[in-house]
Amino acid sequence: MRSSVILLGAMLGRNHKASTGYPGGCVIGKRPVDLHIKVLRSLGAKIVENDTEIRASCGKLKGAEIFFPKSSVGATEQGILAAVLAEGRTILRGCACEPEVGWLCSYLNGMGAKIFFERILSALKG
């Protein structure tokens, strides 16, 4: 289940450690989690992977500037969920702009986050 990977960032932000099995069984085909791992490492997480599991730990996640070499909704959501409890400012560049990313930002802002996502917010208003 892909959502297990997306929850890693949120769990790290709150508990400073998390683990999950690798997702599988997607009818679309193999969907790598390399960008998810990149995002978490960029924010200061230590990641240990084996054939069946991803384990992550951190002291306190720290804001960073992260560039996505290709657009990924899941990895963008990972970055948002991890950064919302990180210290400092995080800037995501080249990230996905699908409506569900904007909805996640709006939802988290409603709970007290301070997310500014210019392209998404403009698209939602227009």
Outline the structure in words:
The chain is an alpha+beta fold and 126 residues long. The chain is 42% helix and 16% strand. The protein has five helices and five strands; from the N terminus they run αβαβββαβαα. It has helices at 3-15, 34-42, 73-83, 99-110, 118-125; strands spanning 17-21, 46-49, 53-57, 65-67, 91-93. The chain has a three-stranded antiparallel β-sheet, with helices on one face. A two-stranded parallel ribbon has the order 4-5.
Main beta sheet strand tally, sense and closure:
3 strands, antiparallel
What's the total helix number?
5
- Could you give the order of strands across the largest sheet? 1-3-2
Oligomer: single chain
> In terms of per-residue confidence, which ranges show pLDDT below 50 for 5 or more consecutive residues?
120-126
Which range does the strand content fall in? 15-25%
Distance between the termini: 34 Å
Tell me the total number of β-strands.
Answer: 5
What does the overall shape look like?
globular
Q: Indicate the percent of residues in helices.
A: 40-55%
> If you average the pLDDT, what whole number results?
86
Structural class: alpha+beta
Order of helices and strands: HEHEEEHEHH
Rg over C-alpha atoms, rounded to the nearest angstrom: 14 Å
Question: What's the arrangement of secondary structure elements?
Answer:
Elements: H1 3-15, E1 17-21, H2 34-42, E2 46-49, E3 53-57, E4 65-67, H3 73-83, E5 91-93, H4 99-110, H5 118-125
Helix pairs in contact: 1-3, 2-3, 3-4
Properties at a glance:
disordered C terminus, single chain, three-stranded antiparallel sheet, two-stranded parallel ribbon, 126 residues, 5 helices, alpha+beta
